[in-house]
Amino acid sequence: MRSPSSAYRPATTACDVTTLTLRKVAAMTAVDALLAGLAAGEVEIVDLTAPLSPETPILQLPAPFANTIPLSLEVVSDFDDAGPAWGWNNIHTGEHTGTHLDAPVHWATGRDGYSVDAIPPQRLIGPAVVLDFTAEATQNPDFLLEPEHLEKHVANNGPLPDGAWLVFRTGWSRFNKDAAAFANADQDGPHTPGVSAAAAQWLSQSAITGFAVETVGVDAGQAGGMEPPFPVHHFLLGANKFGLTQLQNLDRLPATGAVIVAAPLPIVGGTGSPARVLAIVPA
Ligand SMILES: [Zn+2]
């Protein structure tokens, strides 16, 4: 039924209709193209998330520092008297367990930045730029990304795109079912690949949205002894950028051309959150 006021609306011109229709078609095309690509098998979704279980390795800081707890599930009901037709659990764990996002407020330098719930969702989705240092990290677990590696990449490929996730591929996820191998610690602490202080500063001044790794944290195992300590945390979180950790399946990403979708829980005031991280990849 027409509302009484509709009689007083100005007539819509054919031109308005055409403009509106074109806008609608244009707006739908990008999403339609993605859906058509998925249906045709021309677009693949790669899960970059490590399985989350009580065995998932977590960061272990030395005394006197406190640590978070690994994941545990506490059964509330399991099709029993406590819930005859349903099963559910309470989850217990830290914000930084398994594949997770580091929000700026995780670090002293970023404490005025975004908590995990406040991150604009557009900043969680961006083009993936994958730098493959698997060979170097296999040969030297303490391998560090340096500014010259980044400058060489830029010289060959152009500047890092706005809002990109820079993905540091090291092959380290092959250890993620073995906590000891994953930490690779000796009397000097953990030995895992990472980023030099100079390269972390370089990245903080680039257009990237964040830095993504396969290891337990975004900094190198030996980063506590760098100046400043834990430079990726220091510089990137201080620049209101993000970290993504414990990714896997990075061998299924092209060097460029994929899109990363990081989906942390919007924990109000949270310093980070376990996240499902998916890549949209041309098949
Ligand atoms: Zn973290």
UniProtKB/TrEMBL annotation:
It comes from the Bacteria. Pfam families: Cyclase. This is Cyclase family protein. It comes from Nocardioides daeguensis.
